[in-house]
Amino acid sequence: MQTLIDIKNLNMYYPIMSGNWSAKKEFIHALNNINLEIRKGEILGLVGESGCGKSTLGKAILKLIEPSGEVSFEGQNILKLKNNDIKNFRKKSQMIFQNPYSSLDPRMTVYKILREPLVVHGIRDKNEINSRIFEIVELTGLSEEDLKRYPHEFSGGQRQRIAIARALILKPEFLVADEPVSALDVSIQAQIITLLKNLKEKLNLTILFISHDLGVVKYLCDRIAVMYLGDIVELSDSATLFNSPKHPYTQALISAVPSVYKKDAEEIKLDGELPSPKNPPCGCRFHTRCRYAKDVCSQKEPEITKISDSHYVRCVLYE
Ligand code: SF4
Question: What is the structure's pLDDT at 268?
């Protein structure tokens, strides 16, 4: 499969505001030297506890924040783009946010919400605007009647359909979906997941799907990257990851959801909370919670080790 996005040595530091003027400036190291390829036409899942850097990585890939490193999209480093080139990149890559309640302008009808990105990108012909809007309304399971209504008149699931329609109106190639169903009722989640899966097939999309729900990720994603405290600790095709997780963190995450792993497997309890990214542990960032930790784990950052062509893990047990 062809690579659509190639991420190299991506780091993101957030400065922490302090009330004390004389205090030393502190930073949160949210992304720690991330290297990752996203392949054309795949759904890549990104999982991990909240606060591990998943959303930061999604935003960094879309240049919604300013990380250091390289993000190549179709061979062009998007972190170096300026002005019109950024605008062109925005056409090809879009984001769906977790909360459809806050991501839609309550003062605009659905028609205006869908028209706005087209106008911003220079499409002024009314026939073309209408034909694009009617096409996307049909694809996302909305109706033409819905175009006259305002976001508050819709249920959560319908609002997420509107958000998806808005993200797709410019015919992007790449979508970052950041926890797109976690604010929805469980009964509605399956409909939106199925919609995303169908849209990916019909429109030949590439999707980075960020989620903490392993059941959803298992159903939807071709490959999965597991994040812990700003690091990608395991990357694999979906079936292998769930059948044979290698990293102790992945094993613990999966064991907590028996419906997606071996039903009689013992749950692996993680000790303590996720450490603060302001002061991450030295060596392997997971060593403070790992049941296999050895002395070397607190001294040396593990290398990425290739287990097979589709399976990589960052842990000294496999080096
Ligand atoms: Fe555990 Fe050490 Fe592997 Fe980190 S490197 S996951 S601490 S065994």
Answer: 85
Q: Domain ranges in the chain?
A: 243-319
Q: Which amino acid is present at 155?
A: S
Gap from CA of 316 to ligand 1 centroid (Å): 6
Residue 18 is predicted with a pLDDT of 64
Whether the CB-CB separation of 217 and 224 falls below 8 Å is answered with yes
C-beta 290 within 6 A of ligand 1 = yes
Q: Is the CB of 253 under 6 A from ligand 1?
A: no
The pick from 226, 317, 318 for probing ligand 1's pocket by mutation, whose C-beta has the most ligand atoms within 8 angstroms, reads: 317
* Cα→Cα distances 53→62, 67, 174, 230, 301, Å: 14, 12, 20, 5, 18
Non-local CB neighbours of 259 within 8 Å, separated by 6+ positions: 215
Residue 21 has pLDDT above 70, yes or no: no
- To the nearest 10°, the Cα dihedral for 169, 173, 179, 183? 20
Residue 237 corresponds to which tokens in the numbers above? 């095709």
In whole numbers, what is the pLDDT of the chain averaged over residues? 92
> Cα(291) to centroid of ligand 1, in Å?
8
Contact 227, 253 (CB under 8 A): no
As a whole number, mean pLDDT of residues 174-197 equals: 93
| Mutation to probe ligand 1, out of 246, 286, 305 (largest number of atoms < 8 A from CB) | 286
Q: What is the pLDDT of residue 269?
A: 81
